[in-house]
Design brief:
- This protein is an all-alpha fold.
- About 65% of the residues lie in helices and about 0% in strands.
- The protein has helices spanning about 5-10, 15, 20-35, 50-65, 70-80, 85-100, 105-120, 120-125.
- The longest helix is centred in the first third of the chain and has 18 residues, at about 20-35.
- It is globular.
Length: about 130
Amino acid sequence: MLVQSEHQRSLPLFDKYGGMRALHSVIINFYDRVLDSDIVGPFFDDVDMAKLIDHQMKFFASILGGPAKYTDQRLVSAHLHMTITHAQFDAVVALLSETLTEAGFASDDLSKTLCAVEARRSLIVR
């Protein structure tokens, strides 16, 4: 079991879980799961994955307290052309939860991260 020092507990989640390099690995793992999903995988059939992963890196770095800024308006613009249902959003959140758990996120940090994503549901779901 990971024993965290006071310093580790006070770090932004971005730094606590390894910064940009670790985040990149998590995002790649996450999209491997997303692309394998029958529920949400087809959304990405014609998507430039390198560009998408770059956007996701910025989004997650931002919500984890890292150096990137990703505005809600940018999130709206990225999903404006899609009709994403609550069930599809839930499927993505479940895949994200699996990915972050596998990456070693503590349950309270996992909850904080998923709450930050959940707070943006209305910007994505139509």
